[in-house]
UniProtKB/TrEMBL annotation:
<feature type="domain" description="Protein CR006 P-loop">
    <location>
        <begin position="14"/>
        <end position="718"/>
    </location>
</feature>
<dbReference type="GO" id="GO:0000731">
    <property type="term" value="P:DNA synthesis involved in DNA repair"/>
</dbReference>
<feature type="coiled-coil region">
    <location>
        <begin position="428"/>
        <end position="455"/>
    </location>
</feature>
<dbReference type="InterPro" id="IPR027417">
    <property type="entry name" value="P-loop_NTPase"/>
</dbReference>
<dbReference type="Pfam" id="PF13166">
    <property type="entry name" value="AAA_13"/>
</dbReference>
<protein>
    <submittedName>
        <fullName>AAA family ATPase</fullName>
    </submittedName>
</protein>
<dbReference type="InterPro" id="IPR026866">
    <property type="entry name" value="CR006_AAA"/>
</dbReference>
<dbReference type="GO" id="GO:0006302">
    <property type="term" value="P:double-strand break repair"/>
</dbReference>
<keyword id="KW-0175">Coiled coil</keyword>
Amino acid sequence: MISEIQINAPVATYLNSARLSDLRRINYIFGANGTGKTTISRVIAQLQGHSQCSLVWHGGSELERMVYNRDFVDRNFNQDGPLQGVFTLGENQVEAEREIARLQPEINKINDQISSINIQLDGSEQQIGKRQELQDLEPGLREKCWKQKQLHDTYFQAAFSGVRNNAENFKAKLLTEHTSNTADLLTLEELKLKAQTVFSSNIERATVLGNMPADDLIAIEANVLLQKVIVGNQDVDIAALINHLGNSDWVKQGRKYHEQNPQTCPFCQQPTDDNFANNLAAFFSDAYDTDIQLLRELQSEYQIASDQLTAAIQRNVDINNPFLNINLFNAAALTLVERVKNNQTKLANKIDEPSRKVEMESIQPLISQLQNLVLEANEATTLHNQTVANIATEKQTLTSQVWRYVLNELADDLLLYQQNKNRHTSTINGMEKALTDKNTRLNSLKDQIKDLERQTTSIQPTVTAINDLLQKFGFNSFSISQTDGGRHYRIIRANGEDASCSLSEGEKTFITFLYFYYLIKGAQSSSGITANRVVVFDDPISSLDSDILYIVSSLIKVLMEETTSQNSNIKQIFILTHNVYFHKEISFNRRRSADGVLSEESFWLVKKLQHGSVVERCDKNPIRSAYELLWEDVKSENISSICLQNTLRRILENYFTMWGGMSKDEICTLFDGRDKLICQSLFSWVNDGSHSIHDDLYINHGEQTNEAYLRVFRAIFSKAGQGGHYNMMTGAVIEELDVHFVDQSVVIESKLEAAQ
């Protein structure tokens, strides 16, 4: 049966969504005309234009819906041609009925089992279904996956591209990778380092660093000449003196001055002869000059080599290679340059003082450090340039490695998720297989019943039953008979003439109801007679007098009694009405307490307010005081103008036709002018009935519609001597009412104050 009706706005008079939930086997829905009752019946019927509204079926098993409302009448009685016949089981078909009776309990049992499985699968208000339990695994895993994404998103944005802004998509991608990713597992630092290159938005080739030649410098630093004591010829006379003084370098420097002035000693300024000059020349022999020349050549070579090395170092700095540790490189290069300068100074000093031994500081350790830094940078540069040359493949590889790393972080969570998912999936698959098997068996049983029904059904029992009821309740001027070879009905007069176009409203309503009543017990085809169904009655007593109203109520009560039986194919009933007496009659049940409801029933009120129709559940039968409900609408501040006027009409109809003591004409004579027009319009509605439409009625009273009608409505009770009833129903007091007849006009002065 239906467990919930969802009315999704906007539809008809519903401007906001409404919901009828926890529905029972018998559901009473009361509301004034125009409040939205028929919309509910149309939602149940799922007519065109109401597809956005939905029904929730208990256990997921949808039943046949049979709805009696204006649409049913229009489809079956407001068209040319005969009525479709209502097939029921014929007489004297004992064996077929016995077989159907035997199969029906098994069908009901399987239906219950299917409903139970559906509840286990999809859940109910009291329990969570297996499918929901399976779905509930997803949020927990999604949250854990998303935390890992947020943790690594800063440096792995490119790897997460396409799923970075949606947690569900990220989780789905991770599950896909879980089944197929075979990438190498790298450390986080390795991934970050690769990502700086591969995922860079402006990746370019890097320039390889150049060689730094230093072999010549290193060779000069080790030259033996630097350790040689370079002195003059020891065989000349002055050699002993020069060696004794240890100042051969000073003498060598003074020699050039003597060459400029051969007559004077450059050291003591004494006169000299040719022998002194010859001794000096002999002391500084060719061997001495050769060594000095070699020193000068070493100095020149060292200068050239150091300039080349310095230039090579600067070129590497200017390249701006991203893989060169520039800080270490600059520090080592600065130290190297300083050391080279010191060695150049030492070499110059050696030339000035050849007799001294000179030991230069080796640049070998510094050169090795610089060359190692360059080598490391060039190795990284080579890998980088290979990556640049094959960037698409590298990006794909690194992306897979990033996902592999995240998978490894979530390994335990994924294992637990997969175990739970497999367990739930296995359970659901088993239930779905059982559901398929039971539906197959159910369809087989239904086919058997259809075959039995085709063999035994007839429309004649319905003809006989409807005609009997028509005769019993005084409808003697027409009846129904078979036509078209027993497939349809036609409505005929006693003389055999067609009567479908000449029926009164009451006749039409009653025969429509009888047709629907027997349709509930049968079908419009020769099969489907015993199918389980939901039945809806929407105002079935319109235009019927009180006697027929009682008969209709009695027939519906029979169906309600059947509904409470497990073997009945009527599983649920909805009764919608605006008629107080019909509602009280149909809902009367001695077992129900005054302040409660039975377990198999629910009560609802439909109201139309300024913001549209609303549906309210009642914890007891509201129509124990339906008349009071009309007065509650009068006191409501946001009731619409049309609904207010209809409510006022119904109060006047209920009160003055039974207890008011004055006729409509007598009351109207007490008013004059515009108020008289309003009074007459209210009583015109009483006379016309609740479903009349007054297209030609227009009253320009110059006031707000609600205020004018409420004022005249109050005055009607006052003038009719029923002010006490008005006070009781509204909780107000009419303090003063003076009626003066002046010039055949009525002057009314009244004041309404809230009761203290």
